[in-house]
Every structure is written in structure tokens, then in C-alpha cells.
Amino acid sequence: MTTNITRRHVVTSGAVVVSVTAFAASADTLATLGRSVGWNEWLSWSLPVAVDVLAMVALIAWFTPGVQRIGKLMTAATVVTSVVLNALGHLVGTGHLSVGAPMVIGVSAVPVISMALAAHLAAEVAAPGDQHDDQEVTAEVTTPAPAPVTTPVTSDDHQDDQDVTATVTVTPAKTDRRKVTKTVTSGSTEVPAATRRKAEKLAADGKVTIDQLRALGLSRRAAAALRRELVTS
Fold first, then answer.
1. In this structure, are strands 134-143 and 176-185 parallel, antiparallel, or unpaired?
2. Residue 197's pLDDT is what?
3. Half-sphere exposure (CA, 13 Å, Cβ side) for 96?
4. How far apart (Å, rounded) are the C-alpha atoms in residues 52 and 54?
């Protein structure tokens, strides 16, 4: 059996190894910092979970259509927080810095802030499309009237010994007019033609963003899908 190892496999495997190793090192330092500010042995490990795990989740959201902006901002915030807390942990562990009240208060606030950010991110990812996802389009359907039909009718009249031919004209019924309401889902890139033309103009003028597309009346997911289509086209 032959196994083909591509550069993608090498990069992916290397990224996993680096991530696991870096997380372990950061987790140990952050857990030490947690114990330094008064947390017990078990709860001290909640600090690396609240910071580093949230950073990885935010990084995944960064590449998720519809929540890329908040994922990018949250990734930057959590990475910076992890760097600062790791520095504090090393300084405290090596005796270069003593633990004071400001450090205890600051570190104790991290789990609560992380909980709020994680809940907000989860709500953004799980949020359904807004009211623009399903739009009712009402169209008036007109049934065209058929052309008049003329049918010759011949009858034999034995009394006059001659054929009598009559013409019968069938008049069609009046035009049927009715309104048909149809629900159009814009969860994909199937957007109104006018909106698509505006989006294509934005893309031609420069880099188009999801916020610009949402300003045209699209949902977050529809805007993300349309932006991806415009960028790759």
C-alpha cells in the first residue's frame, strides 16, 4: 500500500504539533498564574481554558462566513491577553514580580469576560438569517386569451333538398387574472437581479465587504455567500 504525503499533510501535521505543544506550555504558565492569585489546583486550569481555548474557537470563527469580523477581533483580543498573562505568569514564577491586588483583580476577571465573549460568539454563529432571508414576492399572472375558434356545421334539410351550412364562433372566456405569492429564499447567492448588479458594481470599484452587502438588504449569510462568489469570480 502506497501512501502519498503531500505538502498539505506536512503543513497540517506540523500545525497540529505546534498548536498542541504551544497550548501545553501556555496552559502550564497560566495555571501557575492562577494558583499565584489564589485559585486552587483544579480551578487554576480554568484560566488557560478561558483564554487559549477561546482563542482557538475565535480563530475558527474567523474563517466562518458571516462571523469573520467578530472572529478576527476576538482572535486578536484573546491572543494579546494570552501573551500578557503568560508574561505575568513567568515573571511571577521566576520571582521578578510580586503578586498584588491589581493583578489578583485583573486575573480574576478573565474567566467572566471569556464566558461573555464565548456566549456572544456562539449566538452569532447559531443565529438564523434575518428577515431578509425569506421574502414574499407577489406576481400577477395573466392567462392569455386563446384566439376565437370558428367551426363550420353542416346539416341536411330533406324538405328543401339542400345543404345548410352554418358557422359557429366560440368566444373564449375573459382573461384570468390572479396573484401568486411565492417565497424566495436568499440564504444562498440567489439574490434579486437589482441587488446583484449593485453588489457587482461595489466589487468592481474595490474590495467589497459583508457589511456593504448587508446594507443592500441581504442577510448576513446571503451577503457572505455573495461576497465569496464575487471575490472568486
1. antiparallel
2. 82
3. 6
4. 5
Question: Mean pLDDT over all residues of the chain?
Answer: 77
Nine cell digits for residue 103: 493583578
Q: What is the DSSP letter of 41?
A: T
C-beta of residue 224 within 8 angstroms of C-beta of residue 66 = yes
Helix, coil or strand: residue 178: strand
> What's the CA gap between 199 and 212, in Å, rounded?
8
- pLDDT value of residue 224: 80
Could you give the 3-state DSSP secondary structure of residue 78? helix
Contacts of 137 (CB under 8 A, 6+ apart): 181, 182, 183, 184
Closest residue by Cα to residue 145 from 171, 179, 167: 171
Tens-digit pLDDT profile for residues 90-147:
999 888 999 999 999 999 999 999 999 999 988 888 876 544 444 444 445 455 555 5
List the alpha helices (DSSP H) in the chain: 7-36, 46-48, 54-62, 68-93, 101-126, 193-205, 210-214, 220-232
Taking the domains of the chain in order of start, what are their residue ranges?
7-126, 138-176, 182-232
Average pLDDT over residues 12-21: 90
